[in-house]
Amino acid sequence: MPTSGEARWRRRAVLAVFLVAACSRNPATGRLQFGLPTDEEEIEIGRENDAKVRAALGIYDELPAATAMVDGIGKRIAKSSERAELPWSFQILDEPAVNAFALPGGWVYVTRGLLAHLDSDDELAAVLAHESAHVAARHSVVQMRKRESARRSVGLFRIIDPNLQHVGGLAAQAAGLSLLRYSREDEHEADDLSIRYVRAGGWDAKAIVRVFALLRDLQQHMPKPPPWLSTHPDPAERRDRTAAKLGVAAEQPSVAEEGYLRAIEGLAFGDDPRDGFLVGTTFVQPRQGFQIDLPGGWKSLHDKASVFAMSPDQRALFVLLPSDARSPEEALRDFFSDGAMSPGSRWDGKVGGFPVASSAFGLTDDEGNALSGLVAFVAFDRRVLAMVAMGPADGWAARAEVLSRSFGSFARIDDRLRDVQPMRVRVQVLDRATTIAELAEDSVLDARTLALVNQVEVGETLAQGRVVKIVAPAVLGAGAK
Known about the structure:
Layout: H1 4-22, E1 23-25, E2 32-34, H2 39-57, H3 64-80, E3 89-93, E4 100-103, E5 107-111, H4 112-117, H5 121-136, H6 139-150, H7 155-160, H8 168-174, H9 184-200, H10 206-221, H11 227-230, H12 235-246, H13 258-263, E6 268-269, E7 277-279, E8 282-285, E9 290-293, E10 299-302, E11 307-310, E12 317-323, H14 328-335, E13 342-351, E14 354-364, E15 370-380, E16 383-392, H15 396-408, E17 411-412, E18 423-429, E19 434-435, H16 436-440, H17 447-454, E20 461-462, E21 467-472
Parallel strand pairs: 3-5
Antiparallel strand pairs: 1-2, 4-5, 6-18, 7-8, 8-9, 9-17, 10-11, 11-12, 12-16, 13-14, 14-15, 15-16, 18-21, 19-20
Helix pairs in contact: 3-5, 5-9, 5-10, 10-12
């Protein structure tokens, strides 16, 4: 029989074997980490979530030169990383906000909004290197697992869209699921790795400092700071830290590279009216081909596939979004199939000339509150669209009358509102010394926004021959005033 000392030794030996089996060495940082998935599992996580990102935000593919530039720079960075064997993908998202993020397994994204604010290949490399570093250091898979635990409790959005397939960026943000959040340690680690990757690819590492300065300026001067800043630590502190590591000044002059600017010429800027706009209280969706009247006085938001409206007292919600069902009848049947909602009076017919199946419903939320609602599924151009409205049962009758009129207003888009184009980035070579304030006199953007886009100060005099970005106005259809 073993002595107590021998028993303790055996327990420790077994524990040591278990710990070695349960941990792996991080290829980018050299640290031992526990409970991480295999590369194959991580890649599958990334692939599944890439499909969701594409469905929610869409890939921006109007400019082949920009697409090739992002892919080319990204692939060079990936080769310099410690995980070059991953199936890396670098894409531009059709999103006006300034943002960049990465998914486990090597899926990296930059938004067209970010591209519009960068000035050079070096700066783009700095951004892609930072996000690639999160993948290489396996930060993204750790944060993704934490985020999945929050996905189980998203209230109203789960009721309307059980698999969160169609809520897109707007509802995901409201549900707290929009982006990965990294610790300060993770961010500093990614910053340090990005220096290595940028230098290995032959780019100027000082561009990392300039990107942090741009984020600082956006934070200070934009009415609504970009989403990237909500998920990253203070950019001014990171600028100073990176500048110290590089041994350079924290204030780096902007460097506008004509090759980069020519690659993004024609880039859609700001919200794209092709994805929806309001004419009075009528929401128009040119790409989807429909329009609908929203209740007067309700606040609205939209993304590429959905439109949301909130009552002034913020107690009632209307949403229109796509459904996976093959027919309105199937969609309505599935809506009530789990027993969470109690069906009320049903109505079948046509709205705007399109077949519809609709019903009133009631339910009790997780806090015991009684809710009432209306749901309608419309067969529109070989797909089924869902309209759902919901609010407290108390006082619902009055809301239902208003919302019924909105449901009944669904129609194919007026042709006069179909022909729209977004604002677009244009490149101009200055024929004389000019200030941003002077350029703004003939611009759709105000001087401050134009200065941010060009990474200069409003009062700064730009030399003759400098290449600058200006923004051409949106072109709306004859009826969109």
